[in-house]
Design brief:
Radius of gyration: 15 Å
Shape: elongated
Order of helices and strands: EHEHEEEE
Distance between the termini: 45 Å
Number of domains: 1
Number of helices: 2
Length: 123
């Protein structure tokens, strides 16, 4: 095998990318390394590793507009607050365009993950 992972549903591959704070190490852009590092940063077997958010997209927007909207929303609401965001935009159903975001739970800097950011937890 090539080690390459493909996600297809109804013949459509999602648009996927990682957004991260400017001071994050380069390895965060490799999903396999990112999520392995997330797991390694936790000590407890029952630790929460990530937070997932699913958001519907306006089907009136074209693909480029949807992608720009997603990037702006994720950057403003999560990445600018220190989270790493693993994003997948799904358009396999033209009546239900949406995106998924997996968010890290810890601060990150050039040295890797630090303390859990408790203020990111819902109130």
């Amino acid at each position: 095998t090539t080690g390459e992972i493909k996600f297809y549903h109804r013949g459509v591959e999602p648009v996927a990318f990682v957004l991260a704070p400017e001071n994050a190490p380069e390895w965060v852009y490799d999903r396999q390394v990112l999520w392995n590092e997330v797991e390694k940063s936790e000590k407890r077997s029952d630790s929460q590793l990530a937070r997932e958010i699913n958001v519907a997209l306006p089907k009136e927007l074209n693909y480029e507009q949807q992608e720009e909207l997603v990037k702006e929303f994720v950057q403003d609401n999560f990445v600018n607050h220190g989270m790493v965001a693993d994003v997948a935009i799904h358009r396999d159903d033209e009546n239900n365009p949406h995106f998924h975001v997996m968010l890290t739970m810890r601060y990150i800097d050039e040295n890797g993950f630090g303390k859990k950011a408790r203020e990111w937890n819902p109130g």
